[in-house]
Amino acid sequence: MAINERRETVLRVIIEDYIIRAVPVASNAIVERHGLNVSPATIRNDTAYLEQEGYVIRPHHSAGSVPTDKAYRYYVELLGQDIELPYVERYLIHRVFQEAEEELEQWLKTLAAFLARLVHNLVVITSPKAVRCRLKHLDLVALQDFMALLVVVLYEAKVRRQVLPLSRKVSQDELTKLANKLTSIYSGMTSSEILADKEDLSSEERQISECLAEVIAAEDRLEHGEPYVEGLRLLLSQPEMTNSPRILTILEVLEGDDWLRSMLGQEFSKGGVKIVIGEENPEPALKDLSLIASQYGVPDKASGIVGVIGPKRMDYAKAISSLNCLTALLSSSVAEYI
Amino acid sequence: MAINERRETVLRVIIEDYIIRAVPVASNAIVERHGLNVSPATIRNDTAYLEQEGYVIRPHHSAGSVPTDKAYRYYVELLGQDIELPYVERYLIHRVFQEAEEELEQWLKTLAAFLARLVHNLVVITSPKAVRCRLKHLDLVALQDFMALLVVVLYEAKVRRQVLPLSRKVSQDELTKLANKLTSIYSGMTSSEILADKEDLSSEERQISECLAEVIAAEDRLEHGEPYVEGLRLLLSQPEMTNSPRILTILEVLEGDDWLRSMLGQEFSKGGVKIVIGEENPEPALKDLSLIASQYGVPDKASGIVGVIGPKRMDYAKAISSLNCLTALLSSSVAEYI
DNA sequence: TTTAGCAGTTGAAGAGAAAGAGTGCTAAAT
DNA sequence: ATTTAGCACTCTTTCTCTTCAACTGCTAAA
Question: How far is the CA of B264 from the C1' of C20 (A)?
């Protein structure tokens, strides 16, 4: 009783059948739907073996086989990273990609929504985030007598605002001059460079530059850019989600702020996609979902993440290959803008 | 057989009881829970009348009363607009409001999430949108030889980006000078003012200023600011949502782009809240939900919207008064920044 | 106009019974 | 040693039937 070629085939057939139908796979069906030249009884012997080895379980004693996490893990390792995405899908992704909208946010949202429809699951894309942000430009806007708004424009046209308390009444004219001066000194610098270069500044300018550096440093500290989540309805329309209190706990997690961090906390294998299956998931509420995520961008410069979240029973081949296709495009786009 | 005081009381009691318990209200319960000095049989006569007049229906022949849309409409008219929010809630809203985060987006998100928890339903807040946007500042960033990025900073620190094709190769230095010149000319202007004032410009500058005006005009054309939606889990955890295919169609609408427009398309009664109940809703998928929305800001200058979406059986008094409280705060905040 | 009393309705919950799907096991065949 | 046919067994699903409890509607009296 050992693993052999037919048993591997049987396992693969069970997984792929279950991915499509979401129903336990019977020995009969395995034979019928995949011209294996053996009888159902033989298949039953094989599935008994697979069950013993922990690759499948039965919902109850006389039911068909359902793949376990171990089976899915086996399956994705078997698939590998280099899956060819069918031409039609590839073409569509390219098309949507090229129809760049003027706004980055809108564009990422559109991409996420499109990918979600393609893989029929939830998709999250984070905006590209530079490892070390650099100042492009700063503005100071008078709010009240002792209060100004510091507008910080970073490279990649990211903008941050910060309310700034002043020790005296400063006119808008004066503020504009201040802003111009500081912009010309600090443009192109990172937060630590700004902190280092403070000679020849009045105490007031010094105070603003410290605030400025802190805004940029805060940006640096973020682990990822703004996440765009699309396709919740697609995830929730999956058969395993229909009637269950689970969807509420899932929503609860997804509406929170730190699920992304906890999911993506671990490093990415360079270039490849990261796959988290069921119980491997650190977040308890998501323990019967799978996550496939991929990093795009330029390593050590600027990068973002594209991820697909769906039931464990998801079309891994399609998700992986779509992700590969999209991240390649996004990476080249980021490379251009750096 | 006509409406009289007790019957109005009975109707109010039915509505308020149903809002709390989400279960058909029996004649017994009406008497017991609200010391009416009559017998259940009398109440039954009254509910029979209310049913005839279309204020309540019965899910089946021997069940208690459930309020109709007409009843809710009657109820909110009765409530009026000036409901006092209990001190605790008012205090909490003020507190969250004062804890301003540095980023407008983050702050609105926090406010929406807080309000959602308070009214236990879905909340949407749109960012304030100026009727006529004014340029604060513009930047030009070299991308490639014949391509620049136009960064437009509007008042209220809104930022828009637009890729700009150039007819020749322009250095970053030259672009910066161009941007400074155009900023000094156009700062504080609206899109039509920019279009009007184009004398003394080279054809290149003219081209940029047209692009600039178009970006601002596009912003003007938007009907509302960016919407922040929070509390989906709260809406979906309402008893009427638990097991139903409805939640999928609702999600479908909510994930789309134009439900807000269709819901808020009609004008706001000045100052007051707008209430849409059940069938009054233009969007079919939302026909058994209610929307309560309120506009904040400075009329004809800049404004946004705060809305609560929940089952028809929602706590209208609490929602209306919370909304009033929050919009007052938001309005004064917008007035300050204008 | 209100009330007590009671018959009548309806849905919800539970208990069988029957049907269907699919396996496990055994003994024979290859 | 593997494979297969055959059959008993298990478990879920679905239906029907019954019972129960929750209410109302109606009637006749207060």
Answer: 53
